[in-house]
Amino acid sequence: MSKLTGIRRGIAFVAIILGYFMALLDTTIVNVTMPEMTRQFNTAMEDMSWIVNGYNLAFAVFLITASRIADQFGRKRLFLIGTVLFVVTSILCGLSTSVETMVFYRVLQGLSAAIVVPVTIPLAADLFPKKKHGMVLGIWGAISSLAAASGPTLGGILTNSIGWEAIFFVNVPIGIAAICLAIPLIRESFDTSAGQKIDWLGVLTLSAAMFCITYGLINVSEWGWGSLEFIGYMAAFLVSIVLFFIVELRTSVPMLPLWLLRILPFNGAVLTLMMIGAGITASTYLMSYFLTGILGKSILEAGITISAMSLASMVISAIAGGMSNKYGSRLFVTAGMGVLAMSFYLYGSLNAASTEWDVVWRLVLTGVGIGLSVAPVMGASIRNVPEEKIGIASGITNMSRAIGSVLGVAILVSVLNTALSHYSGEAVNKIKLQIESSAALSAEAKEVILEQVGRMVQEKSSVGAKNAEGAVLLQLDTMEKALMSGVDESVKQELQAAFMQQRQELGQQLSQVSTELQDAFVASFSRTFHAGGWFLLLGIPFALISDRRVGKRLAIEPSIKDFAAEKDA
């Protein structure tokens, strides 16, 4: 353990937290600026999505590899390298002039985040005695929630006041501060049993497996679960992961000690974190659509509303982390998973008439579930492995959470799209019959309305009726001016009456369009939220085995010697 005491130890911990905060901030701060970047780069939203996906893909693929290299060659060294790379790529992202260069730099940024994030736990654990690890992880979880809460709000403020480039440049002072504090205060640490031989075949096969499963899940909502593309990537994942296990069983110095997977509480913690990752990401993703598409909030307003969840999580995490270290994590994590599932299910009772408070208290409940579960389960994951293996254990748990994030979004977006196809299909057919049977509306007006209806369905938003009304009114004004020129006064009066009737009919039709689509979207989101609640209940059995019972946990201190003796027996 480090010999730092008092203020110097606290400052060293701040250096670690700054690096961690910076890496996590960029997973949320970018989302709110996507519309502005789309306009500036003059490209499709599908292309822009890879600014987010590229970061997440690189992050998930390289987590375990980075953890292993840090264990072998120095965790402080990798922390500094990752932080420097993150600062440099942040500057390059802010200076990007095309989507292609932006995506490339975001991939490198995701790689640097994969280096920084997993080493923060072993570095922090090295600073403090074991009895304080629960407190440390509580703060670690609180900082995670703070990054998630401040990302959308900070991104909106910086974009509105300075420009989208500022969301990347804000990382520069944070990263420089982390580097300047870490160099003199954090001591180097290694896994002394890891050796320095790199298991290249293990790295390649595991990276291929993580790439295939992550890339496949990111694209499954577009391809479909039964598509050849998705099946092909899942088959490639299975082949790669089997080859990885074969390589690890035959090599003398494996990158991932497979005996870690024989520790039942560690496996429970890993699988629980996968479910928690699914719940956190899916809730923020779906609630963003609900708040903007159904309740008509701006992206910034939606981000501020969702921050209630992260703030609640921050408070509860700081408390639960320390308590779980004393009393064990199982009950905290199990209760957290139950609250998280319940809150997700309760989202299903929201509708277009829901108030701000109706949304906020459900989000706060979600935050309580996250706070009760994340820090305690992370604490359990490092308590139940040998101290030398905290680094690789951190990489595995973070990878599991990252995979859970894309898995949760993939499953629930598929549920949402299926529900939308059903409910909005019925609504659109009804709307078409109503509009086409209208004698007052011209053929051109009907075409514009139906085109806008299709756009609203595609965007999962029922608040676009005003856009349709504006487009049709503009067309009516143009037609009216053209027809009015050079006609008799009596004819003008007839034309004015006809156009007035069209305007009245337009208002009635658009009101009906908005109501029909709104009901369809609310029903679709309700079904999806209910399905998500039931899905997250699957995490409770994993939570129950995520830690040893208190007496047994305190009596047994896992070590590599114990596992070696067990293997030889």
Give the overall silhouette.
globular
How big a fraction of the residues is strand? under 5%
| Biggest sheet record | none
Tell me the span between the first and last alpha carbons: 32 Å
Poorly predicted spans: 553-557
In DSSP terms (H or I, runs of 4 or more residues), the helix count works out at 21
Q: What are the secondary-structure elements, in order, as H or E?
A: HHHHHHHHHHHHHHHHHHHHH
Question: How much helix, percentage-wise, in residues?
Answer: over 70%
Whole-angstrom Rg: 27 Å
The total of beta strands comes to: 0
Mean pLDDT: 80
Structural class: mainly alpha
Give an overview of the whole structure.
Residues 553-557 have low confidence and may be disordered. The chain is mainly alpha-helical and 569 residues long. Helix 4 (75-94) packs antiparallel against helix 8 (171-185), helix 9 (200-223) runs antiparallel to helix 10 (228-250) and helix 16 (443-458) packs antiparallel against helix 17. It has helices spanning 6-25, 34-41, 45-73, 75-94, 99-127, 133-161, 166-169, 171-185, 200-223, 228-250, 264-293, 299-327, 330-346, 356-383, 390-436, 443-458, 465-484, 489-536, 539-544, 550-555, 560-568.
Summarize the structure.
The protein is an all-alpha fold and 569 residues long.
Q: How is this fold's topology laid out?
A:
Layout (H helix, E strand, L loop, with lengths): L5 H20 L8 H8 L3 H29 L1 H20 L4 H29 L5 H29 L4 H4 L1 H15 L14 H24 L4 H23 L13 H30 L5 H29 L2 H17 L9 H28 L6 H47 L6 H16 L6 H20 L4 H48 L2 H6 L5 H6 L4 H9 L1
Main location: membrane
Organism: Paenibacillus ihbetae
Protein name: MFS transporter
